Amino acid sequence: MLKDKLRRGFRARTMVPVALCALLAGLGSTAAAQSGRLSIGGVARSYLLHPPARRPAESRPLVLVLHGAGGTPAGIAEHTGFSRLADREGFLVAYPAARSGRWQDGRAGAESAADVEFLRALIDTLRRQHAVDSTRIYLAGISNGGMMAWRLACVAPKSIAAIGVVAAPMPARLAGTCAAAPPVSVIALHGTSDGLAPYAGGPALLSAPESADRWARRLGCDPASGPVRTDRVTDGTAIDHLIYAECDRGAVELYSIRGGGHTWPGGPRVRLRTLGRTTREIDATAVLWDFFRRHPR
């Protein structure tokens, strides 16, 4: 009986990110973005692509950014500012769209392989068309989109070098299904006051620390010695940054956002009180890119 109540409560909470992403969808789109389409198994799939400001002399990195449940490519592009950063740093960024607004992230009822096939096909297409460096392909996402990033890192690790997830612990059903090699580097940012994807986990999700610990063991990392605390802004939040040491390959980092909610750190404040605080201590977009550029395959 108690387990049933927990499951019902967690399902109800995980639907609330739809409100967040619907809000993000209304923030506008990236003016220079180009619409693209792929046919996967006879089904049309769409994405936005922010093209290079100028054609590079050599291959460049690619970052795929996945929206949360109920979101859109245009909304997450505007909210995260990844396109503006891409222009400054010289990488290509794409924003895929989930079917019906929700990714098949590997949790019960969301186990179809269609999204895995779509993301792999999109990566292959963009590699051919835009001279992408195959050793520097990355996946970022929030909430349901971050959980989809975990899934791709588990089942298609050869496709990407690293993932960056925000408010997205690993789905528990994925934990025992990850391919053995090659390992993928992971950086995770998670608010301790996240009421929608709880920091402490739930019936369908590992906790944020357990997600990082399990991945660190896969990469042969030593146990982390303790986080470094940052609290420079008076906004009700603080950052505990944990770095796992001496990994055999790759890297794992966890940012625990004390007092942070189900939000994108450093992004625009959201008006829905149920989502909690948006920290000003760090900018998630910059933090993720800094990790990505330091960790090619």
Q: Main traits of this protein?
A:
297 residues, alpha/beta, Rossmann fold, 8 helices
SSE ordering = HHEEEHHEHEHEEHEEEH
Strand % is 15-25%
What would you call the shape? globular
Strand order of the largest sheet: 1-2-4-3-5-6-7-10-9-8
Give a structural overview.
The chain is of the alpha/beta class. It has one domain (2-294): Rossmann fold (3-Layer(aba) Sandwich), CATH 3.40.50.1820. The chain is built from 8 helices and 10 strands. A 10-stranded mixed β-sheet has the order 1-2-4-3-5-6-7-10-9-8, sandwiched between helices. Helix 2 (17-25) crosses helix 3. The chain is globular and about 45 Å long. 49% of the residues are buried.
What would a concise description of this structure say?
The protein is of the alpha/beta class and 297 residues long. It has helices spanning 2-14, 17-25, 73-80, 82-89, 114-130, 144-155, 208-218, 284-294, and strands at 34-40, 43-50, 60-66, 92-96, 132-142, 162-166, 185-191, 228-230, 238-243, 252-258. It is globular, with a radius of gyration of 18 Å.
Strand and helix map with partners:
Elements: H1 2-14, H2 17-25, E1 34-40, E2 43-50, E3 60-66, H3 73-80, H4 82-89, E4 92-96, H5 114-130, E5 132-142, H6 144-155, E6 162-166, E7 185-191, H7 208-218, E8 228-230, E9 238-243, E10 252-258, H8 284-294
Parallel strand pairs: 3-4, 3-5, 5-6, 6-7, 7-10
Antiparallel strand pairs: 1-2, 2-4, 8-9, 9-10
Helix pairs in contact: 2-3
